[in-house]
Amino acid sequence: MRRILFLILVLMTVMPVSDARTLRILSFNIREWTRDRDSKGEYFWRNRMEAMTKMIEAVDPDVICLQEVLPPAGRYVPAGYKRVGVGVSHPIYVRDSMKASKHSFAIFWEACNVEGIRIINVHSRWEQEIVERTVRQVNEQLPDRAVACGDWNTGLASITRAGLQMQSARALLSEPETDTFANFTKTESHGAIDHFFVKGVTPVSYRMIINGYGVSRISDHWPIVLDITF
Fold this sequence. Notes:
The protein is an alpha+beta fold. The protein has helices at about 1-15, 45-60, 130-140, 155-160, 170; strands spanning about 20-30, 65, 80-85, 90-95, 100, 110-115, 115-125, 145-150, 165-170, 195-200, 200-210, 225-230. Strands 3-4-2-1-12-11 form a 6-stranded mixed sheet. About 40% of the residues are buried.
């Protein structure tokens, strides 16, 4: 028995101890509730927001980046999260137990610092001049470690052409550019317009959530989730 304990102590001494930490980030354009107020309609906002609550509880993210948020939709973020920042339409929520501080606010993005990582929540548009302005605003305040996510309303090529100084998490993980736009018309496709970009951190998994959690579609965008180590 003593010999076994000695071997365990030796292994604990020689084996490297990893200090890598993980962070799970959810990005989701919830669709402005004011557009779906028909209580008998397929996409009634309250039903969708109740489904969003279930989805967040199931995904269990550390950081939540939402877009197109207007009161009272923001109240459906479950307990256990605090709102960080000053933006109204694209807020960031962080676990209560995590250290976080707001960062400066810009037109098309909201940002905060979480555990030494800048989280940038983008809600941009498709016009190239708007994409370029968004990218410029992000680039001007990039630290060594950052994650930028959100509804960019345009494809990867357009953002790359604008010169974003970050890498696509999907590309690093060899994930396909799956259509993230769950248009309520169910016919029109826009491709991948919701993205994760990283700098100074390592993406380990990416997924798009197509479970409706009790409704046909939670929004006209599919939620996307990224796990990183840092």
